[in-house]
Design brief:
Elements lengths: L26 E15 L14 E12 L4 E14 L2 E17 L3 H30 L12 H21 L8
Antiparallel strand pairs: 1-4, 2-3, 3-4
Helix pairs in contact: 1-2
Length: about 180
């Protein structure tokens, strides 16, 4: 312990108190983001530019995650868009927009939620811009995808999974003679 007149102070460097210099705080964040795969098709050009019918937009998305190592996970936001009319497809865009996420000292539940809810929420505006630019570059109006509530979808999926597990455990009676 330092005296009052001493310049040195007690920095509480006791390793048992966690002051060992190790980074043991919970952390999650992006390392980088990138287009992993992209396909853009305009299969009926140039005739498509003469069509008058409003296209139907079919949008599908999926979230994937791959562990790169113990602390890094690649999160993939997969978006497929097809604009079509009775005459055929105007355009087809398939995009896999990914990000490397660093996660350290988080519980499994928190890490899972970050990977499948928060990371896609952060990636989506960038993927949305890529889709808008691609449709514009195809010669059409930019397609501005509506925001997606990834946190709400994540919570809904957890509730659905819990209900399925509860139904599977006690809801069925065994077959056979009684």
């Amino acid at each position: 312990m330092a005296d009052e007149g001493d310049v040195l102070t007690d920095l509480d460097m006791d390793p048992a108190a966690g002051g060992n210099g190790a980074d043991n705080r919970p952390t999650a964040g992006f390392i980088t983001q990138y287009i992993k795969d992209m396909s853009v098709e305009n299969p009926n050009a140039p005739g498509v530019y003469q069509w008058q019918e409003q296209p139907q937009i079919d949008l599908q998305f999926n979230i994937g995650a791959n562990a790169v190592n113990e602390e890094v996970t690649e999160v993939e936001l997969k978006i497929n868009v097809e604009a079509k009319t009775d005459q055929g497809a105007l355009y087809i865009i398939e995009l896999v927009y990914a990000g490397l996420v660093g996660i350290r000292n988080l519980g499994d539940d928190q890490a899972h939620m970050f990977v499948y809810a928060e990371a896609p929420r952060i990636l989506f505006p960038f993927a949305r811009r890529v889709i808008a630019d691609a449709t514009r570059d195809l010669g059409f109006q930019p397609l501005m995808l509506d925001p997606i509530d990834f946190n709400g979808l994540y919570m809904q999926r957890l509730q659905q999974k819990a209900a399925e597990e509860a139904q599977g455990e006690g809801g069925e009676t065994p077959a056979g003679d009684a």
